[in-house]
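Protocol step 4 of 5: obtain the predicted structure for the target chain.
Materials: sequence only (see below). No template structures provided, no constraints applied. The aim of this step is simply to have a reference model before the mutagenesis design in step 5. Sequence pasted as it appears in the construct record:
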Amino acid sequence: MANIKSQKKRNRQNEVRRTRNQAVRSELKTRIKTARVAVDGGTETAPESVRLAQKRLAKAGAKGRIHKNQAARRTSRLMRRQAKADTPG
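Step 4 output (structure tokens):
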């Protein structure tokens, strides 16, 4: 355990950030999974769930919860999947 006051504060800040990041990443996984299932199933709610997942990805990337390129890559994969599902044939 740290003895220095500034290090104790740093530990508290790190813990708060860790739990926040963990919650955001968990929500991202859930949103992406829901969107994928909706797109693959061809449900009516697919565009809405993709939109929500895309929104959360962009927000997480902008705030630094995940890397910006990772957010862009995941969004791209989701949009490609949706486009493929929308195309007849």
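Step 4 remarks: The radius of gyration is 18 Å. The CA atoms of residues 22 and 84 lie 31 Å apart.
Proceed to step 5.
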